[in-house]
Amino acid sequence: MGGKARKDDDDQNVKVAVRCRPLNEDxxxxxxxxxxxxxxxxxxxxxxxxxxxxxxKKFTFDNVFGPDSKQLDLYNICARKIVDSVLEGYNGTxxxxxxxxxxxxFTMEGVRSIPEMKGIIPxxxxxxxxxxxxxxGDVKFLVRVSYLEIYNEDIRDLLSKDQKKKLEVKxxxxxxxYVKDLHQFSVKSAEDMDKIMTVGNKNRSVGATKMNSHSSRxxxxxxxTIERYDQGLDGKGHLRMGKLHLVDLAGSxxxxxxxxxxDRLKEATKINLSLSTLGNVISALVDGKSSHIPYRDSKxxxxxxxxxxxxxxxxxxxxxxxxxxxxxxxxxxxxYANRAKNIKNKAHINEDPKDAMLREFQKEIEALKRQLAExxxxxxxxxxxxxxxxxxxxxxxxxxxxxxxxxxxNDDEIKAIKAQLEKEKKELLDAKSMETVEKExxxxxxxxxxxxxxxxxxxxxxxxxxxxxxxxxxxxGGVDLVSSLSLSFFHFDFNIFKNL
Length: 500
What we know:
This protein is α+β, with helices and mostly antiparallel strands. It contains twelve helices and 25 strands. The strands form eight sheets. Strands 3, 7, 8, 9, 10, 13, 16, 17, 18 and 25 form a ten-stranded mixed beta sheet that branches. A three-stranded antiparallel beta sheet has the order 4-5-6, with helices on one face. Helix 4 packs antiparallel against helix 5. The longest helix is centred in the last third of the chain and has 38 residues, at 436-473. The protein starts with a strand and ends in a 24-residue tail after the last strand.
């Protein structure tokens, strides 16, 4: 993303946490042995051998979570600081990695209908708008979201009406890597975000395997862009923009265990290929010798280019299975995560980014306000009086044409002009002895003024509606967003997928 980097660049390694889920019903029924020990206080995971005499392997990470870990604890420890940073203008990425069936989607999304079971993504929704409501009243925010998936190495917009359209990854010097034609929607509450995510999830590719009855067959990225505009100590307005990418990766698979065939096998091949490329990128970033980082070898790594070794604060959540049956996959995940913690990113606050929309919205709002208040501009709707005398000496008072405030007229002024026009039309009808030519002339003049008034009203209405639309997209800090939900201005048509 383009924009100025501040002096307070934040060099830090990718943070890595590991979460071990409990044994599931199938594993318990098989009398599977648990071979994973979790030591949260030490931040360590110990993987025991599958057989007696096997050497234990110990790994240390930033944080580790056992089978009894709570969703909110995971959020507060691993995600809260990232989201706070995004609100200040940094980029942030949180992504879940692991073997299929290890609980990645539960970690990222959870059960959104049960508060204590909500995952990182819905908890971030509430966090973002909670912080906005606590900010100062002179701070303005614009929040936008997008939702995409990478399925069989094709990118699809999960919020598009056309679910068959394949999108392209592009790159520009001023904004960096982006997805062409990806829809973004402005939101004003956590409820807005939740509804949009529900729509996107209905379009996501899932399928059943022996390892997971509801397996994600694609990588999904839910992105939140937060722009904020506030006054600095120098008295000038400052615009900052942070992007938060919440990534639920499809799980790595072994065909012998998943029983994948046909489309499931093709999907697994593509999933494993992109995850292998992700591993190659991680290895190249940490070995210190590679002159080439293979970001372009997959769509996933291209989109995560800033998140791995670039301008982002990143957390990787590795999910593992405790059963001895999956010891090899668990070891592979832990080694993968152990390499990732050595990736060094260089995050900075994004000031005045080229792809920001808030400043453009503000400029357009001010222009519309000026337009609605401006003088003249083509409207002969009222003016000074002029008396016309018919053949019998009767005097009729007719308004002269003159320029007047058009769009700035209030409802009372418009009502008065309408009443005056009606009065003049009545007087004209009552003037029976007036010359026909003169009568037609005055009648045409009245008709012209009436049409001009109507045109003025229509223009004013259109501009007012546009102004309301743009102002409705901005969020003012310090507002109780929960109690004002009924006044929220929605910009996403939640009915477009009602038949799904």
